[in-house]
Amino acid sequence: MNRYIKLGYEGIELELPVHALYLYRDENQLLENIKPLIKEGIDRKERCIYIGKEPCVKELKSEFKNQIMVIEEIMEASLFLPWLKNEYDKMIKNHMGMRVFVESTSEFLTFEELLDDFNTQPDLRLFVLCQYRIEKISSQNMLDILKNHPYVFVEHLLKPNCFYSRVKHRIWLDPLTGIFNRRYFENQLSKELQRASRYEHALSILFIDIDRFKKVNDEFGHQTGDQVLLDLAQLLERNLRSVDVIARYGGDEFIILLPETKKEAAYKTANRILYAIQQYDFFKETKKIKELSVSIGIASFPDDAGGTYELIKKADTALYKAKERGGNQIMVFM
Q1: How far is CA 285 from CA 216, 217, 222, 224, 289, in A?
Q2: What's the domain range around 225?
Q3: Does pLDDT of 249 surpass 90?
Q4: Residue 90 burial class via C-beta count within 10 angstroms: exposed 0-12, middle 13-18, buried 19 and up
Q5: What is the pLDDT of residues 126-167, one digit of tens each?
Q6: CATH number of the CATH domain containing 31
Q7: Residues 132 and 24 in one domain
Q8: Do residues 153 and 53 share a domain?
Q9: CA atoms within 13 A on the CB side of 36
């Protein structure tokens, strides 16, 4: 069978099954966007189901009548997957697939869970759109949500009420820590440098490396080392603004983009991070080591460099000097 489906205003082609994300601000905007997708499903003889509450359910019932199944509730994340499999198994032969539109929470199923539970379905034609009202989501919850979705439909702020792009954003994530990877960071830094240059703003980056990380892996094993990297990534996230971008640059290196931040403010952020790491117990189950230290290098635009790789190189140079001096300290590129 054809393992792809074309969806939405622009006929975007996605690999089945589709587990998509939609962020919306109010019910009018939500209805404006999902109605065409519901109609599209009905026209293609797909079974359509909406799970949510008023006022959406009333309008959808009125417009589509018995062509759509409406469930007036917010379903618990733990109940959704068994319910979904049961409904898919009940689908009659003349249905060409199933579309489910569901009000979701950050605990909702991941794409892997969806695939694992349906791995006996060779002809699976399933589209699940998880909807999140963006005003009710914190930046930390947003990161958790993004990690669950391989396909992301993003609302275009300049052209509201339409789907404008699809990001296969798993290519941007580090598989171990779940934060962004080097490719995404360099892409974002390039964009931010262009914006900073246009509006004459400063920006800074922090290059972070764990001191003597090889010793952790050698003495306690790579599982302990991986847990340290995961803990550090989460600790860094908690000590940054929502506009900052953190990525795992490679190995035990992390890099942070601080938009509209001068060198002095970047140093304060680095100092806060250094202190948080010094206070955190990374080895709760390991009595031999009770602390971990990092070295941090700082470089800023426009003081130190104007290009993506040049700025990263300057921060790396500062980082190297911090490590040369024994680590557990911050160095600013001079």
Answers
A1: 13, 15, 15, 10, 10
A2: 180-332
A3: yes
A4: exposed
A5: 888 888 887 777 766 777 777 677 666 654 333 444 444 444
A6: 3.40.50.300
A7: yes
A8: yes
A9: 12
Residue 215 tokens read as: 């010793």
> Which conformational region is residue 120 in: left (phi greater than 0), alpha (psi within -120 to 50 degrees), or beta?
alpha
Looking at the fold, whether 184 and 324 belong to one and the same domain comes out as yes
Domain boundary among 138, 153, 172: 172
Give yes or no: 26 in active site: no
What is the average pLDDT value for the chain, to the nearest integer? 83
d(CA 140, CA 227): 19
Can you spell out the DSSP letters for 160-172? Answer: -SSEEEEEEGGGG
- List the structure tokens of 41: 């499903």
Q: How many residues does the chain have?
A: 334
Annotated catalytic residue, options 252, 281, 304, 316: 252
Q: pTM for the whole thing? A: 0.57
Q: How far apart are CA 102 and CA 99, in angstroms?
A: 10
